[in-house]
Amino acid sequence: MDRWMVEFAPQLTALVELGAQSGSMTATAEALGVAQSSISRRLHALESALGVPLLIRDGRTVRLTSQAESLIADCAGPLAALERAVTRATAAADPESGTVRFGFPLTMGAGAVPELLAAFHHRHPRIHLELKQAHGAELVADLEAGALDLAITIPPAEHLRHRELGEQEIVLAVPERHRLASRAAVDLADLAGEVFIANPPSYNLRHLTEAWCREAGFHPDVAIEITEFTTIRELVERGLGVALLPRAATTDVGIVEIPVSSPQLRRSAAMAWPTDVTTPAVDLLAAFLLDEFGGLSTA
After folding, report:
1. Residue 243 — φ and ψ, nearest 5°?
2. Residue 49: per-residue pLDDT
3. Which CATH number do you get for residue 259?
4. Tens digits of per-residue pLDDT, 183-220?
5. pLDDT, tens digit, for every residue of 238-263?
């Protein structure tokens, strides 16, 4: 594998980028900053060297063979690590520059994380931030593929290098005219029979919602599924159901948030890195966030 990485890094990089660009040779060439003919030559050379077909021509695009998809899955991470190592070596002379690809959860789109990113940018204006919000599984997949340099994940990515940040409180969100709206706290069992609004099953909070409700003796009646947390709050405000959500950074008109006292609902968050090889810019952002991060009670 080492020999292949050394001798065929440009060809493998072209193949990985082609996969990321859904088979568009033009987009791949633009992303890598080379001529399209160069991409074609690289891929043809890789096919010849391996002795297996990698591409199926389909008009102006190409489709990847199963061998190509397997090769991309195996080499995307090592190629990203190689790029980080080279970047680290060349960036050492000027640690106040560079790019950091940083991911954070959808539930942290307001409050502490944006405030801290703004403060970091003012302190280190020559470091370029590429930000991505997504749910936990997608962020972990991007870390594994080398598409992110650093991310906050919920739950912690136990198999990656990580450092726990703390816990995020989950509260009950109800319309202001709901029967429970005047309560100082609720037991989860009080929600049996309620209609729920929740994320799709692939989301960590959906898994936790179902698990917590089962432990309380009932299965949640999820009538509406949606990815966006802000839209969940809008639907709750309109009386379409209740939801278990992280506490909002600001008060939403028409919604009452009620602590759940039995059981108390919490979920852990952590900072995660794809590898131990980082750049000075990544180190600066990680150290800043770990030092300054003041809490996880944001939505």
Report:
1. -150, 150
2. 84
3. 3.40.190.10
4. 999 999 999 999 999 999 989 999 999 999 999 999 99
5. 999 999 999 887 777 899 999 998 78
Global pTM value? 0.67
Token couple for 57: 């021509």
Domain assignment present for 299: no
Host domain of residue 110: 98-165+268-292
Spatial separation of the C-alpha atoms in residues 44 and 38, rounded to whole Å: 10
Task: Name the nearest CA neighbour of 207 among 137, 262, 157, 277.
Answer: 137
Any domain includes 114: yes
**Cβ partners under 8 Å of residue 279, min gap 6:** 84, 87, 88, 91, 98, 100, 149
How far, in Å, are 73, 140, 173, 202, 268 from residue 19 at the CA level? 10, 19, 41, 23, 33
Helix and strand numbers, DSSP H then E, in the chain: 9, 13
Extract the tokens encoding 251. Answer: 């008060």
Residues 272 and 161 reside in one and the same domain: yes
Judge if 245 and 172 occupy the same domain.
yes
pLDDT above 80 for 293: no
